[in-house]
């Protein structure tokens, strides 16, 4: 059963300017592993985190750095959740989270489906 759906779209150049103006955003929004990525990939991960929050129905109990977007060996993007965020997701009865990312021109988008425990 689908518990929630979220989608987000990020303008990559605008996101890059935000990072340049406020360098501490890297520490506030991304895990240490994510901080090593190029701005285009960071924009997609930001979109993924925003889409996850939307799929969860809000940000209560969710912390940005508890959400890491990783890749399986196949290249498929997946969430790695830790801390309070992992606890919040489990408490909401979510057993699986599906993530799709895409880049085109100057846009990065993410789509998330949160699935309940059967």
Automatic annotation (TrEMBL):
One biological process term in Gene Ontology: fatty acid biosynthetic process
The keyword Metal-binding appears for this protein: yes
Subcellular location: Cytoplasm
Catalytic activity, as annotated: apo-[ACP] + CoA = holo-[ACP] + adenosine 3',5'-bisphosphate + H(+)
Entry EC number(s): 2.7.8.7
Location (main, coarse): cytoplasm
Keywords: Cytoplasm, Fatty acid biosynthesis, Fatty acid metabolism, Lipid biosynthesis, Lipid metabolism, Magnesium, Metal-binding, Transferase
Domain annotation 4'-phosphopantetheinyl transferase: ranges: 4-89
Requisite cofactors: Mg(2+)
UniProt key word Lipid biosynthesis: yes
Positions contributing to Mg(2+) binding: 8, 50
One function term, GO molecular function aspect: magnesium ion binding
Annotated GO CC locations: cytoplasm
Record-linked Gene3D superfamilies: 4'-phosphopantetheinyl transferase domain
Family: Belongs to the P-Pant transferase superfamily. AcpS family.
NCBIfam families: acpS, pantethn_trn, PRK00070.3-2
Functional description taken from the UniProt entry: Transfers the 4'-phosphopantetheine moiety from coenzyme A to a Ser of acyl-carrier-protein.
Protein name, entry field: Holo-[acyl-carrier-protein] synthase
Organism of origin: Microbacterium radiodurans
């Amino acid at each position: 059963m689908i518990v929630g759906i979220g989608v987000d779209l990020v303008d990559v150049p605008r996101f890059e300017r935000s990072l340049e103006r406020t360098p501490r955003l890297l520490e506030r929004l991304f895990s240490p592993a994510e901080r090593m990525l190029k701005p285009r990939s960071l924009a997609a991960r930001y979109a993924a985190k925003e889409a996850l929050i939307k799929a969860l129905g809000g940000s209560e109990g969710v912390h940005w750095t508890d959400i890491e977007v990783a890749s399986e060996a196949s290249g498929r993007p997946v969430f790695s959740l830790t801390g309070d965020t992992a606890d919040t997701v489990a408490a909401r009865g979510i057993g699986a989270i599906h993530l799709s990312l895409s880049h085109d021109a100057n846009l990065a988008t993410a789509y998330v489906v949160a699935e309940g425990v059967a």
